[in-house]
Write a structure and sequence with these properties.
Number of helices: 2
Organism: Alsobacter soli
Distance between the termini: 55 Å
Strand content: under 5%
Pfam families: NepR (PF18557)
Order of helices and strands: HH
Low-confidence stretches: none
Mean pLDDT: 77
Radius of gyration: 20 Å
InterPro entries: NepR (IPR041649)
Helix content: 40-55%
Largest sheet: none
Protein name: Anti-sigma factor NepR domain-containing protein
Number of strands: 0
């Protein structure tokens, strides 16, 4: 009879910024995790600074109106 290994799930209470905690990757050295985080932020910085497309704003406004009616 074989025994199944259960997947470890990170504890949200121990999560760091952005919801990723040190426990999420037990074999990864914290300095490497920090380095990866800095590199990802640098790569996606331009995307985060782009304006929201008008179509998305229109959809958000419609959603706000609809939610306002139900409250």
């Amino acid at each position: 009879m074989t025994q199944k290994k259960s997947a470890r799930r990170p504890d949200p209470a121990k999560a760091g910024p952005g919801g990723v905690g040190r426990e999420a990757t037990p074999g990864l050295v914290p300095q490497i995790q920090d380095h990866i985080g800095r590199q990802l932020r640098a790569v996606y910085e331009d995307v985060l600074n782009q304006p929201v497309p008008d179509r998305f704003k229109e959809l958000m406004d419609k959603l706000d109106e609809k939610l306002g009616e139900t409250e």
